Amino acid sequence: MAPGICHYVFRRDDGQPLPFLPGQFIQVHFQYADGTETKRSYSLATVLEQGSEAATLVEIAVSFVPGGAATALFEGLEVGDSVQASGPFGRFCLMPQDDNRRYLLIATGTGVTPYRSMLPLLEQAIATRGVQVVLLQGARRPEELLYGDEFRAFADRHPDHVRYLPCFSREMPREGSAHAHPDVRRGYVQQCLDSLAPDPGGDIAYLCGNPNMVDAAFQELRDAGLEPRQIRREKYVSSK
């Protein structure tokens, strides 16, 4: 999907669908070389069909870490191979009781994965209560923008309700390329939050990805007046 990141698709070996809430994650269980048991967590990237609560496909995005044990596991997989996994877990989800006017969805790297899964629920919230959605997605370079085409297509389908803002910290897209449009930002996502005018009276924010970004963006949103209950966080920590 991008340098050092792969998208994997699995099916349960019992043939049953996997019930889950968009934003939840699974844990993949495996062993280190010395036989010690360990596990890694991966947010579900699966996009459920409208009205469905279970998935026939289990999709995740895996970021490779040089020398990482989980990286060795996934790099060695071939079509038809199996992994052991448990779940789903987590509460990084859209809540049925939400009555906010706008969602601020902020992510870096594979932290954008749960937002892909949330797209049908966001579409439903747009249709039923006219909610606004801003997706601010950080990457170093355009080729590292995960699921960017899907998010752009979602914004194009809902131009009055959705803004998609790719944010690049090292390299901007070339003029005329697919990623070159007026809402592209330069820098780190937490530096762009002021331009979104966070509203304590109407916003709920989601932060997912690099822990430093999550902490910095959380503080920016708190400084803007959002209460902790209006800010939902999930940090992605690389492990070997």
Automatic annotation (TrEMBL):
It is an enzyme of class 1 (oxidoreductase). Its EC number is 1.18.1.2. Pfam families: FAD_binding_6, NAD_binding_1. One of its GO terms (molecular function) is nucleotide binding. Transmembrane segments: none annotated. Residues 1-95 form the FAD-binding FR-type domain. The keyword Cell inner membrane does not apply. Its cofactor is [2Fe-2S] cluster. Gene3D superfamilies: Nucleotide-binding domain of ferredoxin-NADP reductase (FNR) module, Translation factors. Keywords: Nucleotide-binding. Belongs to the ferredoxin--NADP reductase type 1 family. This is ferredoxin--NADP(+) reductase. It comes from Lysobacter defluvii IMMIB APB-9 = DSM 18482. The lineage of its organism: Bacteria, Pseudomonadati, Pseudomonadota, Gammaproteobacteria, Lysobacterales.
